[in-house]
From TrEMBL:
It comes from Intrasporangium chromatireducens Q5-1. Keywords: DNA-binding. The keyword Metal-binding does not apply. Pfam families: MerR_1. InterPro entries: DNA-bd_dom_put_sf, MerR-type_HTH_dom, MerR_fam. This is MerR family transcriptional regulator. The keyword DNA-binding applies. Residues 4-78 form the HTH merR-type domain.
């Protein structure tokens, strides 16, 4: 854990750039709700590196932009909530959404990888043991074709299942993914019912990318709560 600063060390970090900074001004900013230092059991204030950066922002906004404390407080509130820094008098703006690097785009999903694997080849490539492999088949997560062969999607599924097994999730636990996927497939098929040819393939890839993005966002949100 990073060492916390006393008010004296806080001033030492900033007084070269802000020579008028005093302990009373720091305490005033705290009273105004712009700084929230922690206190020791004895009641002494201590400051983190984030507090140093926050105080630097406040002092710079006063000196360079002539912002009043009300405007600075609104800007800090926006930044604390992950919004873009607003101009004085303007409403805070949500940041431009950035594509999740964990989610493949539609163009990637449209790419088909020609691949045919036997069961033993799939087990070897994915690292699955025989029992887990057969369990995934019985639960419908792996589906061989009429000749008993597996494709590129099966390899992706097998690799993911092997990685989850390292965290203690067995094949029986993964049935919920199969059930959820079947429901999503049903929804997509309803939308695509009247679409044919290349347009169907393109629209299918776009919807698949959005479904994956939604799934990833929901799981991340649930875990982060």
């Amino acid at each position: 854990m990073a060492a916390r600063l006393t008010i004296g060390r806080l001033l030492a970090r900033l007084t070269d750039e802000f020579p008028d900074l005093t302990p009373s001004k720091v305490r005033f900013l705290e009273a105004e709700g712009l700084l929230t230092p922690e206190r020791t059991p004895a009641g002494y204030r201590t400051y983190s590196e984030q507090d140093v950066e926050r105080l630097h922002y406040i002092l710079s906004a006063q000196r360079d932009r002539y912002w009043p404390l009300r405007v600075i407080k609104e800007a800090l509130d926006a930044l604390d909530r992950g919004l873009a820094e607003p101009e004085p008098g303007a409403l805070p703006q949500a940041p431009v959404p950035v594509a999740d690097p964990d989610v493949p785009d539609a163009a990637t999903l449209r790419t088909r990888r020609p691949l045919t694997l036997t069961g033993p080849e799939l087990r070897s490539a994915s690292g699955l043991d025989r029992d887990t492999f057969h369990a995934l088949e019985s639960f419908g997560l792996l589906a061989p074709d009429a000749d008993g062969h597996f494709g590129a999607h099966d390899l992706d599924i097998a690799v993911a299942a092997a990685r989850l097994a390292e965290h203690g999730l067995e094949a029986r636990h993964l049935r919920t993914f199969r059930n959820a996927a079947d429901r999503e497939i049903g929804l997509v098929e309803q939308v695509l019912a009247t679409t044919r040819g290349d347009a169907r393939e393109e629209r299918s890839a776009q919807m698949l990318a959005s479904c994956i993005a939604l799934h990833v966002a929901l799981v991340k949100a649930g875990i982060d709560r």
